[in-house]
Amino acid sequence: MSQLPVKTRLGTAPASSSSSSSKTTTTGKTYAKKTTVQEQRTVVVIQTFLPVFAVLRALDPEAVAWACFFGAAYWIFRYVLFRVAPKHEKPAGASKLRKDVWELRPDIAGVKRKFHTEWYSNLVSLLHAPAVTVGGLLCLWQSRNDDAVACFFGYRWLPARVCGMFLGYLFYDLALIVASPSMRSAGLLVHHALFITCAMVCKQGSFFKFPFAWLIAGEMSTPLLSIRWMLAASKRSRGNMYLAVCVALLVAFAAVRVFLYGYGLSHLWRHYELIVDVVMRGSGKKAPALASWRIPFFSPVSGGISVEAIEAAAADVSGLGVLSQCLLVVPHLLTIGYVLNLTWFTLLAVGLRRVLRRRTDVTIKES
User: Where are the transmembrane segments (predicted)?
Assistant: First the structure.
């Protein structure tokens, strides 16, 4: 039987009670939905960071410390900015420093919400890149008088420390990429996997000091790349500053990631037979004859290398055990990285051309 409406002194009971209950139900569903999303994000973060932390702890404590440092810097940027900078109004009469900090907030800068994580990640990158660039340049300076064997084998304190910082940042950034759908990119994942492998191999015994030095010096272009992305994300891609950053980025990228990287890669391949000889001696095996598949234009280095230096390097390599074979893979991985750099350089050149064409069209319309 259908229920009749309840009578009151003024007639039928108002429908506001049912509407209020429906609003309460809707609010409850919305709150439950938000809670579910937050729980899912928490689970994703836990599932991402705990295995990475376990792997880092098993591999290298120094990398753990740097990964924690950069992770703490990320959360400091994310939450401290919300306390220093008010959300709705620009601080009148505040210092210039506080106004600059105010404009670092992505919601104030007009950045879409899905890109907020990448925004803070670029702020952390602005801390990391200059530090490792200086370290890489110092490593290059230390290697200026090294012979062929000393360029690739033998422990040195500074490259090991810089490599630990670089490895920790790569693990932190990889965890952030996996946890953030907006940052996921096949190119970035391949890039991080390649250089994590190379950094881990080099960190074990301070191997490949000279290749690591020119590789890490390539981070010189990273701050410009971060600034360019932040300007584009905050809808400031039509100003003179954006054009200047694009030009500087293209020049810096060509200098360190095309020419310097190319020179270092050619130096590495010219010494590849030496690397194979040392690794095979350290493994107790005979080095194969590589003349049949020698790479064109990369004539190997011969002469000027003492047998004693090779035997000493082989003794260092023998301590790696099975991992010593990974040293033979590093040149191939760095070659793949160079192909990625050439691809990104082409994209940067196309982007700069697009910016110049857009500015030319605007000038023609205004005239």
Answer: 63-81, 119-138, 158-179, 186-206, 212-231, 243-264, 329-350
Kindly report, residue by residue over 277-314, the tens digit of the pLDDT: 888 887 777 655 544 444 544 555 555 567 777 788 77
Please determine, for residue 332, whether its predicted confidence score (pLDDT) is greater than 70.
yes
Rounded to a whole number of angstroms, the CA Rg of the chain reads: 28
- What span, in angstroms and rounded, lies between the C-alpha atoms of 317 and 319? 5
pLDDT tens by residue, 351-364? 899 888 887 765 55
Q: Which two tokens stand for residue 146?
A: 């090294």
